[in-house]
Sequence to fold (289 residues):
Amino acid sequence: MAKEKILVTGAGGQLGSELQVAGKAYPQFEFVFVDKDEMPLDQPEMVRSVVEEVHPSWCISCGAYTAVDKAETETELAFVINGDAVGAMAAACKTVGAKMIHISTDYVFDGESAIPLKESDPTGPINVYGASKLKGEQLALQNNPDTVVIRTAWVYSEFGHNFVKTMIRLMKEKPSLTVIDDQIGSPTYAADLADTILKIVTAPRFVPGIYHYSNEGQISWYEFALAIKELIGSPCPVNPIATAQYPTPAKRPHYSLLDKSLIKKTYGIEVPDWRKGLTTCIRKLQASI
Ligand SMILES: NC(=O)c1ccc[n+]([C@@H]2O[C@H](COP(=O)([O-])OP(=O)(O)OC[C@H]3O[C@@H](n4cnc5c(N)ncnc54)[C@H](OP(=O)(O)O)[C@@H]3O)[C@@H](O)[C@H]2O)c1
Fold:
């Protein structure tokens, strides 16, 4: 019997790469990993034809325009990739009868909350990237009711570019570092998110809708940097600074801690503490040097 196909976009990104690793434990599926060459997300009509050609049972949408600051000037492109292409993918999924898991972001919120954010809380993006991702969520759910949207935050992995790898590099290169201490959230180890996605695919019951997922715990970027410093045993001094002292083209939410109750209850997901994922990731990075 032919295996069920799972089409994964953004194959070479952080999450796509972790899905390539995690997918090895699921030999019952045929994974089709695509990136820019096979499925250019800036050409939504191509997205539709690739989905129809592959004819998957599942589409896991990890590909995205993720350059948060650059999006402030490349607004149109960000909206095509994060909005229109996602809408086209969802419509094509509906045509072929595929379920979709689309990855979104904590940046759909304005960051003014003081308590962990629930899926039903009002959105209000404060930058172009967040607004384009919100459009993608809306089009995905509208065009294919069999869609799960997972909002995640502060993603890092041994693959691709991220805060953890940047900190490790800068701690080797610079005499000291300053890191923002007034943006609060929780990091997400992409390997943990990849496991969660595949648990949803293999769950006994598919319950569409929006879900929040990050690792457990609440920290600032400064505290995250301190933990990285401790784990790699770096002597580099790390000092806290306020967001106001580090202006960037895109505004970031001050508080974006995600409440994970719904995904835990609905899909029985156990969410590891952020320190566990960070320790594993750094061990893997050190082993690969
Ligand atoms: N990183 C975070 O902190 C974070 C936080 C919250 C939510 N998210 C969301 O989580 C998901 C996965 O993020 P990630 O960290 O794995 O992102 P990533 O490492 O930046 O990977 C994004 C992937 O999308 C691909 N891509 C970009 N433009 C494309 C285009 N025009 N056509 C086809 N593919 C294109 C990239 O290919 P190239 O490498 O060739 O450009 C890359 O493979 C995304 O939906 C993102 O919005 C991420």
Residues 10, 12-16, 35-36, 39-42, 62-66, 81, 103, 105, 133, 152-155, 160 surround NAP (CB under 6 Å). The chain has a mean pLDDT of 97.
